[in-house]
Amino acid sequence: MKKFNRNVGLRLICLSAILTLFYNCNSDDSDDELGNWVKKSSFNEEARSSSSAFTIGNIGYMGTGYDGDDYYNDFWSYNMDTNSWQQLSDFPGVERSSAVSFVINNDGYMGTGYNGDTNEELADFYKYNVATNSWTQISDFGGSARYGAVGFGSSTSGYVGTGYDGSDKKDFWKYNPTADSWEEIFGFGGDKRRDGVTFTIANNVYFGTGISNGVYEEDFWVFNLDTEVWTELEDIDEDDDDDVYRSNAVAFTLNGKGYIACGEYGGSISTVYEYTPSNESWEEKTEFELYARRDAIAFSNGERGFVALGRNGTLYLDDNMEFFPNDEQDDDDN
Amino acid sequence: MMKKPYTYLAVFIVISVFTFLIYYFINSNEDNNKFIDQHPFTLQVLEKDSSWIYEIYNEDNLFIRQEFIPSVKGKQIFKSKEDAEKIGKLVVSKLSKNAFPVISETDLKENNISFEHTN
Asked: Which of A18, A235, B36, B67 is deepest in the core (most CB within 10 A)?
């Protein structure tokens, strides 16, 4: 009788061991989250992070950055339709990382940032003309020289705020392209921070995440581009199931919804959250399907979204992935 | 009672074998991926509207389509097929060394590419 029991016990242990193994194998893919990441034209091995990017039409523009050894001032376009890259006119300022950029009408603007060779925060700013593939210097940023700021634009103005100038900042500045001048705008009542993100839906700019003195910021704000009024929304950690808070993430807009992806929370992370403005709610989506990463870039024309480059610790990354928020996850297209 | 250690040993061996098999399966998949990742890059130089452009393919997929001289200001075109080919080859050689395929003004000068310095 004892022997019988022992055999049954042995079988049970084996069976449970097998079941456990199979369960573990499956658990990677059995997420409830929707969304699929598809690999697109990627750079090769030696890549970079902390580049700056903006999108005009179906073309994403990316420039500057740091690869662990060197700072860069090269500038590239990514054509969403042909899935190909082109090297454009070099960014005319010194090589840098963590610059900020925005678009006013169909002009790109890029400036501020950090050059580690001279250990300097930067305030110079430049305008990129798509039609002529050329840069012109504009007035230096009105606030203190800094990096890790956020930037966004409307059809008439550009806005840059927060970041790090030796300490974390909470000031916002408005750029007037007609007068080529910067003017401080007030009304942002949130915390000082660096490495936050914004995404723009219609005339509303949503601003959140980032870090200050080791604390991940949880407040979440919307800025109306018409009225220039800041309004505080529900904190991003309001729902205990959502882990939206992070720093050094990317954000983009697809079909009227906002997305915050990847970033840093203790280490590099790959989670993705979708924000629906109509009910002010967050929903977790399929996480980024390659290496978790921070300091990546995102391109988005409102209908298509791409996340590229970045780093995981000291490993610099080259991938470029397109996100399809409503597709089923698929491992075969990474 | 002497048989008890054998029972534990048997369970241990079964679990080990399964674990080993599954790791082996996963690793062999990764090795396949690594092999595929060693992409051959190919260069094509094309004439477009009386200028020369180059395209670089990663296997069969278009990766870089360069219509203007990289790095320099403005939409300056390659004036000869040789110029486009020299820079295209340089990009491919950087890619094959796993370097970021960036062309600098120094690269252009070293290859005697004619361009206007407009800055």
From this structure: B67
- Count the Cβ atoms, other than its own, within 10 Å of residue A59: 17
Which candidate in B100, B106, B109, B118 is best for mutational testing of the A interface (most A CBs within 10 A)?
B100
ipTM of the complex: 0.83
Q: Which of B70, B71, B73 is opposite residue A134, by nearest beta carbon? A: B73
Superfamily the domain A34-333 falls into: Kelch-type beta propeller (2.120.10.80)
SS3 A261: strand
CB contact under 8 A, B65 and A13: no
Is any Cβ of chain B less than 8 angstroms from the Cβ of A84? yes
Q: Is B87 left (phi over 0), alpha (psi -120 to 50) or beta?
A: alpha
Domain locations in chain B? 1-38, 41-110
Local structure of residue B39 (DSSP, 8 states): P
Q: Do the Cβ atoms of A191 and A212 come closer than 8 Å?
A: yes
Q: Where are the domains of chain A?
A: 1-30, 34-333
Q: pTM of the predicted model, to two decimals?
A: 0.83
Structure-token pair, residue A203: 């005339």
